[in-house]
Design brief:
Blueprint: H1 2-20, H2 27-41, H3 45-58, H4 63-79, H5 81-92, H6 96-109, H7 114-129, H8 138-151, H9 157-170, H10 176-187, H11 190-193, H12 203-216, H13 220-233, H14 238-250, H15 254-267, H16 273-284, H17 297-307
Length: 308
């Protein structure tokens, strides 16, 4: 019964390939497809991907091969979920040498996965400089956030660049941080070329200043992007919270504006502007969007009694 099911599945895949693609120009292309589908049906996804990659080398326009590689990778991601979880936890704990070993186990299951291949090169550089996070200092916290962004499946290299440079500002004597910055600049030289920060200005101060200019120029989305980068590294930065609230207000994201200003007021209860900002926000909101006033316990008891 199992043999019949496998044969039926293989036949179905072959039909799909024939419908979706032009007829192979030579026997080799058809042979690669046949081998790939046989491996796929047998659950040998890595071998199937190898054969579909051979198809693409012969003819890069073969969309079925591209689609089936993605499908096989989805299947492999499910079977390798434990390895991926272990890898992610090691990166989160900033144990970079151990994360590299775990990543190489992942690569053994899917040797051509572009994310794994890119992360392997990055981790080799990172772990050679810092095999693990050596301390719980603020500086290493910022560096670890940057490295996580660098290694992510959707790598955020601009944030990684800012985070590593901020770490270097917090701990000028730490030799690992300039080396990590240099490694990132080598991989992505456009980061340095496009950087507008003056040499004598701190990273986060520059980002807050850029955000202020974006607000003046009515580029509120850009302002929010800069300020969110600041707050990822310093969640209690009152200036960034105040400016973020102003940008969110202009974007009509009233919930985020209120949240930013309320958080800033908690951190700086003596700030004279923030109560005015929140009052103005309440007055600007449509009636239905305004927050309900807090009820006292006494008032709540009266209302409960009236309903009963």
């Amino acid at each position: 019964m199992k043999t019949l099911l496998l044969a039926a599945a293989l036949a179905a895949f072959s039909v799909l390939a024939a419908l979706a693609q032009p007829a192979p120009e030579n026997f080799d292309l058809k042979a690669y497809y046949d081998k790939a589908f046989a491996h796929y049906v047998a659950g040998e996804y890595s071998k199937a991907i190898e054969q579909w990659n051979m198809v693409l080398r012969a003819d890069p326009k073969q969309t079925t091969a591209k689609n089936m590689i993605e499908e096989a990778r989805r299947k492999m991601a499910g079977s390798a979920s434990d390895l991926k979880g272990a890898f992610a936890r090691l990166v989160q704990r900033a144990q970079y040498a151990d994360a590299l070993q775990k990543l190489e186990e992942l690569l053994a299951t899917d040797p051509t996965n572009p994310h794994y291949v890119a992360a392997q090169g990055r981790l080799r550089n990172i772990s050679a400089i810092a095999p693990r996070r050596p301390s719980a200092s603020r500086a290493w916290g910022a560096a670890a956030d940057g490295i996580s962004a660098w290694l992510g499946e959707k790598a955020d290299l601009p944030f990684a660049y800012d985070a590593l440079r901020y770490a270097a500002e917090l701990a000028p004597a730490e030799k690992a941080f300039p080396r990590l910055v240099a490694a990132l600049e080598t991989e992505a030289p456009q980061l340095r070329l496009n950087d507008t920060k003056p040499r004598n200005v701190a990273v986060l101060e520059h980002k807050k200043e850029k955000a202020l200019h974006h607000i003046y120029d009515a580029k509120f989305y850009l302002a929010v992007k800069e300020l969110e980068g600041v707050l990822r590294l310093e969640p209690d930065d009152v200036t960034a919270l105040k400016r973020a609230g102003s940008a969110y207000l202009q974007l009509k994201d009233y919930r985020q504006a209120r949240s930013s200003w309320q958080r800033a007021l908690q951190l700086s209860p003596g700030d004279e502007q923030l109560p005015e900002y929140l009052k103005a926000l309440d007055e600007a909101l449509p009636e239905a969007a305004r927050p309900e006033p807090r009820k006292t316990r006494k008032g709540a008891r009266k209302q409960a009694g009236a309903r009963s």
